[in-house]
């Protein structure tokens, strides 16, 4: 017996899971710090919650009319040739000048700052809102309990370690520890800065120094570390040249040749390969200013006096200690342009060298390497070569460049500019003329380019 209910036909629905092969979004989701007050407060179910959330959460990008991308690309060079460098950000933007940092402030930081009272009514028990709430000055009435009370001094704001005044105080502190009799104890002002206070541990470390890794070592002597301003050249630093092979190889006399003390290195131009390498390094420095500026690589001609007996006279003539005493100097005699005899020193061309390796930064003379020379007048007896006397100290000298030289291989070398070979140099020292002094002072004031 069949039922009277109508038959309903249903299609079978199979749930098929499709794999999502799309990669995750490139930027992670932004997590919002929302207080968990629950749904009972009505904060999340109100109509203004989404609008208030959009106002509080600032955008991460600047949304302009074109969304940061100009639509009209006609005026942009090379953009239709596949070169998109003009519409991309610079890989190494130039550092921001300290004077322009104020221009990078956000708009909400501009104008005068206003303080708002939050969480307090205008009057509360007929008392003024305290400074702890408003952030302003605190009002107090005068009575017998606080009129005789000593006001507590304000806590001084901690000085930044990079502040120039703070650096000067700590430099003076080192001098005061070394020379306590010369310490300045007067009034502290902009002209006369007082040194920072030294601790007993710092004074003990100066009076009884110990080796940091071997405390059993005993100090035999100490030298103050001082700069030698009289010996600093006009370029601001020295160049150290190192020969990969001995420049003088005499098997019959293996001792040190004193002519090396007065040797001459004459720049003899650049090769085409060195100039191309310099231009590549210069372009890399322009793209990335953090890379040190390159230094040009040169060929050098090496000159020496013909005889060792000339060394003493050359040192006397090129120093400031009685250089005009020509009777004590053994000069060579040569002819000037007019055929008249003149006194000089003859240097012979030994060989030509090329630059093997070179490092340095002319703009940072003290950041890499400095030369150190210990001088004690009682122990180091030598001929005076300057007017001023040096005290006992360890003198340091700035090094702007370190270059390794190797003998140039025989054969033709392609140079950028062909220069005639110099076989003999006739040199002599003299005081500069008045116009030469003015030119030297002008170059010092304007600054000299060491890389040229």
TrEMBL record:
Gene Ontology molecular function terms on file: chromatin binding; RNA polymerase II complex binding
Subcellular location(s) of the protein: Nucleus
Region (Disordered): 134-161, 427-452
Keywords: Nucleus
One GO-annotated biological process of the protein: transcription elongation by RNA polymerase II
Keyword Chloroplast carried by entry: no
Annotated Polar residues bias: 134-148
InterPro entries (alphabetical): RNA_pol_II-assoc_Paf1
Domain of life where this protein originates: Eukaryota
GO cellular component entries: Cdc73/Paf1 complex
Family membership noted in the UniProt record: Belongs to the PAF1 family.
Protein name: Paf1 complex protein
Originating species: Cochliobolus carbonum (strain 26-R-13) (Maize leaf spot fungus)
